[in-house]
Each structure stands twice: as C-alpha cells, then as structure tokens.
Amino acid sequence: MKIEEAAQQLEALGNPTRLEVYRTLVRAGGVGLPVGRLQERLGIAASTLSHHLHRLIATGLMTQERQGTTLICRAHYPAMDSLISFLTEECCIESACTREEGKAA
C-alpha cells in the first residue's frame, strides 16, 4: 500500500460519523446492510449518510451493490486488512523488540 492511499483512508476514518458508519458495516459482516437500515441504526439524515458513504467508497473502504431497488453497503475487508497491515508491518523494525512487544504495538 502506498502512503498516500493509507493517508486518505485514515483521513476518511478520522471523521467520527464516518468511523461509526464503517464500524457498523464491519460488525454487519459480509452480508452488509441496506442504506435504509444503516440510516436507522445511526440516526442520521439521508443526505449526511450519503455524503459519508461516498467518501468511504472513494477511499476503497466500502462497496455498494444494488439489489433491486435496495443499495447494500459492505465494508471492503481487503482494504481494511491492507490498511492494518500497512500500519503494523514495520513494527519495531529499527529496534530489537520481542515478539510480545510487537503484538502490543
């Protein structure tokens, strides 16, 4: 992962509402959630939710799929895994930390 991509994803998740949206989708699993149900769970206006969803899609952190008249939102787990790996892959690379210290970091 390039540092620019990681920065964009972290910036997107730096907004409390987007982070809440994303965590809700992660908890929903691979099945995802319809936009309407996501809106009900979070209690935010449709236009506000739409804005945040577009930002998460643009950074690759989530996907949407149309099923009939319903839009299903899903966390994009490969992107999440890539971002987490980017943050941890060089843990303790410049020091002689133990395996347990690396896990804690």
TrEMBL record:
It comes from the Bacteria. Gene3D superfamilies: Winged helix-like DNA-binding domain superfamily/Winged helix DNA-binding domain (1.10.10.10). Keywords: DNA-binding, Transcription, Transcription regulation. One of its GO terms (molecular function) is DNA-binding transcription factor activity. SMART domains: HTH_ARSR. The keyword Lipoprotein does not apply. InterPro entries: ArsR-like_HTH (IPR011991), HTH_ArsR_DNA-bd_dom (IPR001845), Metal_resp_trans_reg (IPR051011), WH-like_DNA-bd_sf (IPR036388), WH_DNA-bd_sf (IPR036390). CDD domains: HTH_ARSR. Residues 1-95 form the HTH arsR-type domain. NCBIfam families: HTH_metalloreg. This is Transcriptional regulator. It comes from Chelatococcus daeguensis. The lineage of its organism: Bacteria, Pseudomonadati, Pseudomonadota, Alphaproteobacteria, Hyphomicrobiales.
